[in-house]
Amino acid sequence: MASGGSKLSEIRQTSPLGQKESLELFLFVTGSVGFFQAHALSGQTESQIKKIRVNAARLETRIAELAKFGKNTQGGVDRVAFSEADIKGRGFVVSLMREAGLAVRIDEAGNIIGRKEGTDSKLLPIVFGSHIDTVPNGGKYDGALGVLAAIECSQVLGEHRFLTSHPLEVVVFSDEEGGSVGSRAMIGELAQESLASVSQSGKSVREGIRDLGGDPERLAGAARHNGEIEAYLELHIEQGCILDSKHVDIGVVEGIVGISRWEVRVEGFSNHAGTTPMNMRQDALLASSHLIIAVNRAVTSRPGNQVGTVGKIRVEPGAVDVIPGLVVMSLELRDLSADKIRALFELIQKESRSIEEKTGTKITFFPMDSSAGPALTDPRVQKCIAEAAGELGLSALLLLSGAGHDAQNMARIAPMGMIFIPRAGGISHSSREFSKPEDLARGANVLLKTILKIDRGYLQR
Ligand SMILES: [Zn+2]
């Protein structure tokens, strides 16, 4: 039984209503809804099932154990996809899946899938999970929490001898941090060309997938289709700081922002910095400076959560006494609405035309491969998660994910929902990543309740 059970009863039920922020955040009224009805039980009463909680201590221990694979001297985790640490960590996760009573297979893309059959073979599987690969010097919760909580949910149901009606599938996606390789393959959109790209481990994606036990020549076999999955759920740490700063327990994700990226080339003319008068220059860096400010102006010119960043810049020839002739820089725009991203980009392009004129330069935008479309979560799944949180006495907030996740791809083929827990200080992709043990258990219990509600036909009502 959950050691977190008693703690949960002490949790505030208050939600910070009234804090209407510029970020257009919404609050869910997470009142308890008596949804559980008697059906498809395996020797358990409704009230017994309602009381099932994850084993918080076991979850916490396993997070610490998994963090040993790739542990570095800075206190972080180096477990980039396809590395030795990733492969060994996955072996550990497979052993936990088996312990939880899941039948484990590796699909063609190297995704690990642990399945437990339900009582009704006609029903679609409820799929949940995340990834265990990290960025270099990453933290121990990003991805790992979603995977280990998913295993915990399956295991605790088994320990209570509770069988769901739907099959349950725990998924560990391959190479999330390198561009959601496993989930792209699962929706049938991992192009053969992507296999040649070199991953953080130094291996090509093709070699990496093979080393995980996949079959990169038969990627199509990993593809799943619309109508084959009841729902996809992912529990993750919030990679921002909204929950932590507002003291809210659970984030119900409204959607994952789209990311559009361009390489911007600003061509001017390199000339002597001492002999070229100011009015005769075609300074590519000066033009770029105007453009960077124009990006900021465009993005902040309208209400909403959109963000725009120039994060990388290269100046040529890069000498103190030469007028910059060429600048290559990045432009990234993120928002939940693809239309808004498009409109902002058009605004930036328009501004670039007048900068070209003013500075005698040429500005060209080249779209980058790493762009990803926005993904909305399913409103029914949002509601289900919010109700699950309410029944556990937790406060919840509807928010956006500014970071990409495998769920973004899964939304293309299944009703998708994401649960966020706060992270102390809002730090992520860092060895300083930290979430409180009670938050881990709360998130896992919300996942568990959401699975059970969906199993009882929540999405079919
Ligand atoms: Zn992640």
What does this structure look like?
This protein is an alpha+beta fold. It has two domains: 338 residues, Aminopeptidase (3-Layer(aba) Sandwich); 110 residues, Alpha-Beta Plaits (2-Layer Sandwich). 32% of the residues lie in helices and 18% in strands. The chain has 13 helices and 15 strands. The strands form two sheets. Strands 1, 2, 3, 4, 5, 6, 7, 13, 14 and 15 form a ten-stranded mixed beta sheet that branches. A hairpin with a 5-residue loop joins strand 2 and strand 3. The longest helix has 22 residues. It is elongated. The relative contact order is 0.19. The N terminus is likely disordered. The protein binds zinc ion. Zinc ion binds next to loops.
Labels describing this entry:
binds zinc ion; elongated; Alpha-Beta Plaits; 2 domains; alpha+beta; five-stranded antiparallel beta sheet; about 450 residues; Aminopeptidase
Shape: elongated
Question: Termini, distance in Å?
Answer: 30 Å
Q: What is Rg?
A: 24 Å
Q: What is the CATH superfamily of the largest domain?
A: Zn peptidases
Biggest sheet architecture: 10 strands, mixed
In short:
The protein is α+β, with helices and mostly antiparallel strands. It has helices spanning 5-9, 46-50, 56-66, 84-99, 144-159, 181-186, 205-211, 242-246, 284-299, 338-359, 379-391, 406-410, 437-455; strands at residues 26-27, 103-106, 112-116, 126-131, 168-173, 231-237, 250-256, 258-267, 307-309, 313-316, 326-335, 362-367, 375-376, 396-401, 416-421.
Topology:
Elements: H1 5-9, E1 26-27, H2 46-50, H3 56-66, H4 84-99, E2 103-106, E3 112-116, E4 126-131, H5 144-159, E5 168-173, H6 181-186, H7 205-211, E6 231-237, H8 242-246, E7 250-256, E8 258-267, H9 284-299, E9 307-309, E10 313-316, E11 326-335, H10 338-359, E12 362-367, E13 375-376, H11 379-391, E14 396-401, H12 406-410, E15 416-421, H13 437-455
Parallel strand pairs: 4-5, 4-6, 6-15, 7-14
Antiparallel strand pairs: 1-14, 2-3, 3-5, 7-13, 7-15, 8-11, 8-12, 9-11, 10-11
Helix pairs in contact: 3-5, 3-13, 4-5, 5-13, 9-10, 11-13
The structure holds zinc ion.
